[in-house]
Task: inverse folding
């Protein structure tokens, strides 16, 4: 009984934390020209992987290619918006 009471006293003495703050969303990444080159290389590598696939599975590796293409288009759009790409 005294053990439970001692625990309650210890728990009650914890210092109060500060007020909770609102979580802010992270800023989108600021891409630059080397990121564009890397994204193009990733798309080319994904295309090579699909071309070199020996099994006759039509959609194998397709998700990786689509992800790389989507990232490339996002980077290109942001660079165009900032005037770094024509």
Result:
């Amino acid at each position: 009984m005294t053990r439970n009471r001692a625990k309650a006293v210890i728990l009650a003495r914890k210092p109060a934390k500060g007020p909770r703050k609102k979580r802010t969303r992270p800023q989108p990444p600021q891409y630059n020209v080397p990121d564009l080159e890397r994204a193009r290389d990733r798309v080319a590598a994904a295309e090579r992987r699909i071309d070199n696939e020996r099994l006759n599975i039509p959609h194998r590796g397709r998700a990786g290619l689509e992800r790389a293409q989507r990232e490339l288009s996002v980077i290109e759009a942001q660079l165009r918006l900032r005037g770094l790409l024509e």
Q: What stands out?
A: The two ends are 76 Å apart (CA to CA). The longest helix spans residues 62-81. The chain has three helices and no strands.
